[in-house]
Amino acid sequence: MILPGLAGNLSFAQQTNLKYSQIWFDVMLQQTFNNHFRFLFHTNYKHLMDDNKWNQFMVRPTLIYTMNDYVYFQGGVQLLYTDLGDLNKLEVRPWQGINIFFPTLGRLHFNNFFRLEERFFYQNIGERQTTSLRGRYAILTNVPLNHPSMSPRTVYLLPNFELLGSLWGKDVERFIASTRYSLGAGYQVDDRVRLETIYLLERSRDRAEDNFRAINHIYRLVFRYNFKMHTEKSIGL
């Protein structure tokens, strides 16, 4: 079992010929209305450090419905503007998701996050270029270190894993299937504020081939603010 896995990793290393570094900045603002409904406003800026001409701006308003302590439903529209210097692209991305919180192992509360994204691309903010459907699955958890659970002045770890893949349609992106491994650290300042710093390793596959062909090193800074505290659970990416 070990040798085939090692051989696969060596093969991957030999075939990879593109490497990138990105920095992401995220702000997430959440308002709780009652025991069932919450609103999340997420904005994000991405910069490709290897190419100063590549910048992306994103806003994602999200409505969250809490069915019980184990199942949440989410839905929203994500708007992404990509500035490539002499070219720009707009993506409109309606999406639907579900969180299943299972299992719980001591301090580890696992969140299984499934998401479907309908992607509409526009080039130079004009005619629609293409449409596609993408699926995502992530397993997320917060690991409190200095307290038994998430509470004010808690330091915590963020080990996460995510799979992304195209399900239907023609993609304009060169790399359509990705695997992300991430490890971060966070600090819960009080009942409302959390600060996080995260490193992500993303492996991506070329749309024309079966082998992974690129690696992204992503450095992410996140600010979270809850206008009304409702839960200690992390709801998604």
Description:
By secondary structure, the protein is mainly beta. The protein has one domain (2-226): Beta Barrel (Porin). The chain is 6% helix and 68% strand. The protein contains 1 helix and 12 strands, in the order H-E-E-E-E-E-E-E-E-E-E-E-E. The protein has an 11-stranded mixed barrel with strand order 1-2-3-4-5-6-7-9-10-11-12. Strand 9 (154-169) and strand 10 (175-188) form a beta hairpin. The protein is globular. It starts with a helix and ends in an 11-residue tail after the last strand. Residues 1-13 have low confidence and may be disordered.
Q: Helicity, in percent?
A: under 10%
The main pleated sheet reads as: 11 strands, mixed, barrel
CATH architecture: Beta Barrel
Uncertain segments are 1-13
Question: In total, how many beta strands?
Answer: 12
Short note summarizing the structure:
This protein is mostly beta strands and 237 residues long. The chain contains one helix and twelve strands, in the order H-E-E-E-E-E-E-E-E-E-E-E-E.
Describe the protein's topology:
Elements (H helix, E strand, L loop, with lengths): L1 H14 L2 E15 L4 E12 L6 E12 L4 E13 L4 E18 L2 E16 L4 E13 L2 E2 L9 E16 L5 E14 L4 E14 L5 E15 L11
Parallel strand pairs: 1-12
Antiparallel strand pairs: 1-2, 2-3, 3-4, 4-5, 5-6, 6-7, 7-9, 8-9, 9-10, 10-11, 11-12
